[in-house]
UniProtKB/TrEMBL annotation:
<keyword id="KW-0812">Transmembrane</keyword>
<dbReference type="GO" id="GO:0005886">
    <property type="term" value="C:plasma membrane"/>
</dbReference>
<dbReference type="GO" id="GO:0098542">
    <property type="term" value="P:defense response to other organism"/>
</dbReference>
<dbReference type="GO" id="GO:0009506">
    <property type="term" value="C:plasmodesma"/>
</dbReference>
<keyword id="KW-1133">Transmembrane helix</keyword>
<dbReference type="InterPro" id="IPR004864">
    <property type="entry name" value="LEA_2"/>
</dbReference>
<dbReference type="Pfam" id="PF03168">
    <property type="entry name" value="LEA_2"/>
</dbReference>
<protein>
    <submittedName>
        <fullName>Late embryogenesis abundant protein LEA_2 subgroup</fullName>
    </submittedName>
</protein>
<keyword id="KW-0472">Membrane</keyword>
<feature type="transmembrane region" description="Helical">
    <location>
        <begin position="50"/>
        <end position="76"/>
    </location>
</feature>
<dbReference type="InterPro" id="IPR044839">
    <property type="entry name" value="NDR1-like"/>
</dbReference>
<feature type="domain" description="Late embryogenesis abundant protein LEA-2 subgroup">
    <location>
        <begin position="110"/>
        <end position="212"/>
    </location>
</feature>
Length: 238
């Protein structure tokens, strides 16, 4: 029997079953990462779409505003307001080099022309400033007013008093020359708020800068007729 068994034929060996182990915690982590990644992708996608929508809206608004402004410009055809000093009467202009005090008395009339056919203009917070050289020696307020279209308005003011003015060597030399000639080089500046009016609509306020370079003769009993003041146009800087 032993020999029979030894001579028997055996099949292929049977391998033991392989045991598989699952890590429940790791599997849950993979699932969570997948959800977070999907949520982040959705946020990025929605954020990009929102930015594109906002940009398109802003571009559309800017284009519409540009078209409206162009149409209004063609309809209204706004023109620059014209300023001119029509009269200037200087009765005193004395500078004391020891005390540096300037004594002055000057009357001014301004002609303001609104050339626009459809636009009225509001002038608010008007102020006139007087300069000799680069030194301001006086300022005065003027009454606010409204000016209709195609209209010329004349307004006046007076600057008088005394002011400490520090003139350098060049300024003193200019003053001596002006005193000898009897004609003084005085700068006048206008500062105010300007608003255009069309129908019942008012524009936003702008602050133009008006500067007038004047040559004003001193009014004395012995003044020569050749030193007459000439109406002077002012420079307008919007």
């Amino acid at each position: 029997m032993a020999n029979g068994l030894n001579g028997a034929s055996y099949g292929p060996p049977i391998k033991p079953p392989v045991k598989t182990y699952y890590s429940h915690g790791r599997r849950g982590s993979d699932v969570g990462c997948g959800i977070c990644g999907c949520f982040s992708s959705c946020l990025l996608c929605c954020g990009g779409c929102l930015v594109n929508i906002i940009c398109n809206i802003l571009i559309g608004v800017l284009v519409c505003l540009g078209v409206v402004a162009l149409i209004l410009w063609f309809i209204l055809r706004p023109n620059v307001v014209k300023f001119q000093v029509t009269e200037a009467d200087l009765t005193r202009f004395e500078f004391d080099p020891r005390s540096h005090n300037l004594h002055y008395n000057i009357s001014l009339n301004f002609s303001i022309r609104n050339p626009n056919q459809r636009l009225g203009i509001h002038y608010d917070q008007l102020e006139v400033r007087g300069y000799y050289g680069d030194q301001r020696f006086s300022a005065a307020n003027m009454t606010s007013f409204y000016q209709g279209h195609k209209n010329t308005t004349v307004v006046g003011t007076e600057l008088n008093g005394q002011k400490l003015v520090l003139l350098g060597a060049g300024g003193r030399r200019d003053f001596r020359e002006d005193r000898r000639s009897g004609v003084y080089r005085i700068d006048v500046k206008l500062r105010f708020k300007l608003r255009f009016k069309f129908g019942f609509l008012n524009s936003w306020a702008v602050r133009p800068k008006i500067k007038c370079h004047l040559k004003v003769p001193l009014s004395t009993s012995s003044s020569d007729e050749r030193f007459q003041f000439h109406p002077t146009k002012c420079h307008v800087d919007l």
